[in-house]
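#onboarding

Welcome to the new folks! Below is a worked example of what a typical request in this channel looks like: someone posts a single protein sequence, and someone else replies with the predicted structure as tokens. Don't worry about understanding the tokens yet, we'll cover that in week two.

Example request:
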Amino acid sequence: MRIRDSIKIAVSGVIHAKMRSFLTMLGIVIGIASVILLMSIGGSAQALIINQVKGIGSNLIFVIPGATKSGRFSAPASTQGIIIKTLVSGDVDALSRNPAIVAISPEVRGQAKIVYGNNDTDVTYLGVDSAFFPMRNFNVTEGSTFSSRDVDAYEHVVVLGSETAKTLFGGYNPVGKTVRLKDVSFTVIGVLEKKGIGAFGIDQDNIAILPLSVGQKQMLGIDYYTDITLQVSDAYNADFAKQRVTSIMRESHGITDPNKDDFTVRTQEDALSMLGTITSVLTLFLTSIAAISLIVGGIGIMNIMLVAVVERTREIGLRKAVGATTGDIMQQFLWESVILTMLGGLIGILIGSFFTVLVYLVLTYLVKMDWVFVLPSSAIWLSVGVSTITGIIFGLYPSREAARKDPIEALRYE
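Example response:
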């Protein structure tokens, strides 16, 4: 029997038993749609995180207090809530003398309630140098940022995040108004543009930014820094600059044994690599879970095809009686299985793509996230390939059972 005839008979069998065909395809449809949706969400999340990391500035290096133990995903102790006082003004002076560094901003941070009139909200406040704003791409929609002169003069001025300004002042312009932070009065001089959730889940709209001198000495009463952000010249390679910063910090701290570092140096590339690996692993994990439904769907196909073989026993006997070979019967049922899974795969791709678009619209226009639409072609080709292979693998046994039937016994079957 020619392949074209086998396919025609298989299609006829699928159309003839519509409900059975629908139930057979259902598991494959759900499995493929899940794989498409989860791979797309994983790709979108990865793109979103990478864009957020890139959006905090370019050519940045971060010096964090505390050493990092060996291991790709290990973090300095300071990021786990442990207070470490190893970053001081001497480090800033030493780093600023390096020609690879074009800008530097030591930082301190804390949390407190900010109050204006009868309105208040909890915010994260940052004490930074004036170089912080251009380095980190923080622009104002109203007013201005503070200058290095304001930092040196201990001026009580503050730049508010967009959400903080909205909570305290509603739709009014807050520039020139006085707010209280930890019972200390500050004059609002600017409001930041809306930034959304930043890298590592930090809400960049619910913050208050103060001059470093005021934040460090008056608000926190400390003589060390939470971290130091450096901007490297475009003329220098990031890895080379990282090595230079590490050497300067070791010299500043009198460290000769690299295993005794009391600081950690990270670049944006380090963050992108780590976050990219994490999101890839999560995507693979979620996709593997979704793939289980494909196995369940394949088992469903095998079971229903076995039932179909029993129901069509007389048909099999009649075909063999008029000259169909064992190979012809096996080919017919195998093609039927493949057509069902491929059709289910195509429907699953359409449904998965629809829900991917729906997720994008909901997160973009309702939740107001900077969600990135990603529908990887690899997910589509993988779905087509997997559905076809599933049809072949789980269709082999029913096809073999149909082909092995004795024509005389099959014709006697009631």
